[in-house]
Amino acid sequence: MPAIPSFGGLRGRTNRVTPPTAPIPVPLSAYVVDCGVYVDGERLPGRWTHIDAVAEVRRRGEGFVWIGLHEPDERQIQGVAETFGLHELAVEDAVTAHQRPKLERYDDNLFMVLKTVRYVEHESPTTANEIVETGEIMAFLGADYVVTVRHGKHSGLHDLRAELERSPDRLRGGPAAVLHAIADHVVDTYLAVTDAFEGDIDLIEKAVFAPRSPVSAEQMYLMKREILELRRAVMPLANPLRRLAEGCSPLVPDTVRSYFRDVDDHLTTVSERVTSFDELLTTLVDATLAKITLQQNTDMRKITSWAAIIAVPTMVVGVYGMNFDHMPETHWRFGYPMVMAVIFVACIVLYRIFRKNRWL
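Above: the chain's sequence. Below: its structure in token form.
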């Protein structure tokens, strides 16, 4: 009898479950792009944390703090929220992103969302997979601070901050002046994107009405989708800008309201252009579908014409291929040439008729 192997060495062993690895905490400094203290339009020297910066401003009784964050998580932004007293619902929106442009008022601060857009360079609009890329900028506005939260790689504010620091008169307007500069920067980007988009639409329009154009219905729907993406960024921003221009909060002084009216005027121009692009693309989509339908009808006429021409020899060959002895001209010397001549003449006549009617 064969020996039974012993499994005693396996006794007492248990399957150990590896506990889930806790996420590595990332310091807030990894998300802070810049933090500056501005007094009388000038930036104070030195590096500041958000706690030290707001303490310095409130100790002086003047100036404001501008802190910029890039895609922070909920845990990292919590410290900033507690320091500046930001509302939890606004903080949740800032972390989650994918918000519509809006302006909300929470107690003694404002929360504004702006959609940023970037024109994606490509060789031709007829082969592009993406034309417009979007991001977001959220801004918390208080009496002595402005906190900006960015989502997306193209929504940087470094150049804008440097430009404002070279113009102390603008920064003397306080946090509202910074919010205006951001809104103006975003709307100017809209104008640049619509300029580039207009060139693409002109090329598409020429291609659609050109003979044997390479534009397909799928490409037209892509253009339509991209202009709708731009529309969703532009159109909802009109109401927040109008509210800021009308003075919805004492945080926006009268000296800054007129500047928001100018931004609103520029946004109106962008909105009109986007609407015209949308209507033109709708027309081009209809023209493309009509052109495809016409091409299909032309192909069907060609197929039908050739089928009618081929039916003549098929019918004759089918009749004389039945091999009956008592058939006309089966034993006539000139029967075969005569049949071939009749087939040839009939095919030529049908071909000329179809060519005359432009079926071929």
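The first helix runs from residue 50 to 60.
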